[in-house]
Give the backbone structure.
Amino acid sequence: MPDLNNIGCALPNMCYLPPDKSSEQMQDRTSSKYAADGKPSVLIFGTDAEIRLLLKTLLGIWNYDFEEAKSVEEALFKASRKNFNVVLMDTKISFPDSFAEMRVMQKSFLKHSPFILFSGHVQTDVCLSALAAGATDFFIKPIDFDLLEETLKMRIAESSRVKQNS
């Protein structure tokens, strides 16, 4: 379980956990790879077609390689064929279901990918629950696109630094 005393907040838009510097996790993160064309690879997960379209548009503008999945099964299948640097996940209204889906994905091929979650709920306990469940970052809708872009760069740079140092 993450140390929730170290949560950082860029409120009102985002909560996050600082990077884990443990040697085991740093070693594990070296498995992250870029797409064949050198672009960082992102998996977009969620059932809301509008949010997926918005994220695909942004990732295209920001020059990321990306794929989308509407179900856990589809996400696991895509992750079995490709390494993703980051997972962007739109949460459901039923948070226990979303967190359970995230944990299933984290036990699979996506175990080394940071999860960035999105929600329309601003309650602190929802943010804390998401981070305790394994999310790396938690954004409150409406999404601050500049902050999201910087967060993606930071999470991908972390895994690149680890890869270079090993």
Q: What stands out?
A: The domain at 4-165 is CATH 3.40.50.2300 (Rossmann fold). The chain has one domain: 4-165. The chain is about 45% helix and 15% strand. The radius of gyration is 15 Å.
